[in-house]
Amino acid sequence: MKRIVVIGGGSGGVMFSNRMRGAFTPDEVEITVIERSEKHFYQPAFTLVVFDLDDPVNLMRPTKDLFFEGIKLIHDEATKIDAANNKVSTAKSGDISYDYLVIATGARLIFDEDPEGLKSALDKGTNTFNFYKLDGAIKLRDALKSLDGGTIVSSVCSMPIKCPAAPMKFIMMAEDMMREKGIRNKFKFIFTTPMPAVFSREPYASKLNSIFASRGIETVANFNPSEVDSDKGVLKDFGKKEVRFDTLTITPPHGGEAIIDNSEGVGDAAGWVTCDKNLMVSKKYSNVYGIGDATDFPTSKTASGIRKQAKVLVARLAADITGVPTKAAYDGEIICPMLTKNKRVMFAHFNYTEAISPAIESYANWVLKVHMLRPLYWNLMLNALV
Ligand SMILES: Cc1cc2nc3c(=O)[nH]c(=O)nc-3n(C[C@H](O)[C@H](O)[C@H](O)COP(=O)(O)OP(=O)(O)OC[C@H]3O[C@@H](n4cnc5c(N)ncnc54)[C@H](O)[C@@H]3O)c2cc1C
Which ranges carry the FAD/NAD(P)-binding domain (predicted)? Predict the structure, then answer.
């Protein structure tokens, strides 16, 4: 009997654990998941909530209801990994030993460092918002409804972030919303990015540039926010540039979880789990694996990527346990549905080396993203059926 411990019961923790449970009996493999939260959120629909395209009640399920029978769920905070001695410390449940460890701790949103003033601006909630959390998405939805003019800014603080397209989706959808309301001429739309351009991968980058240009959405590139002054409505950057706003949505810096910093040899300086980008195994420990947003895989942090990673990880662990070799490897594939305007979505679908889909906006993609992906996630993806 092999003991697998999984830290984190988000998208990666559930997709991996259920698929692994399906591949081995409880007599062959014991699976223990350590998850601190009793609630699991379907994060890809937070952007939809902002535009009233989904109801928040559809986006949360109790974590305990998501795991297959035969998986042990411990609701606790994992505090430290002692990878040299194959054990994880927890806040309340003592030390838990493993033969294999899967780190699925996701990404942490950092509100209390740079830009200065971010937390207080968000707490005030008058003109500064963040839709990377569900309550923030609801506040932004309500604020957008009553706007009748001004400058709307979507700002990305640093990379990497979850779903790097989400802040762009927001600005394109907000522009379209005001156009449909007949008040587009009363607004200015600005997207700021720390990157040299709106998007890095072709052919999607060229397509987005032409959408932004044709719809008058301004881009401020190489912009690294240093301070939010919500009273004056000014966002400053470290290079002394300034962007004025009436309504700001800001995507905060992301980093790895504290447990990665507390644990010798598993992460880098930003707290991302350092793994082989194809084999998903830790660069230092051969029985430690990473999955999802927690890792330093050089691809976008998305649930779509995690669906692929879960299959690879189960195949690789199965090979290790049975001794039958596998060629399974993660190629960096992700699919990012970009809402460009009402009833139009473009899929950015690529892997580490190449684009897989053309840069086309379509209604069929809209139907898939807005009406089908959430039920697919709850019913099929989490249950290892696709
Ligand atoms: C606004 C937004 C839009 C998005 N849009 C898309 C999209 O269109 N398509 C797409 O595919 N993806 C999208 N994503 C990204 C997608 O939601 C994430 O990539 C995915 O959910 C990450 O899964 P994960 O398991 O790595 O992390 P999470 O699902 O965040 O889970 C991590 C879990 O680990 C737990 N945890 C962390 N540390 C500890 C600890 N020390 N002890 C115990 N438990 C711990 C946390 O409580 C959490 O439950 C979007 C995300 C956001 C925020």
Answer: 3-109
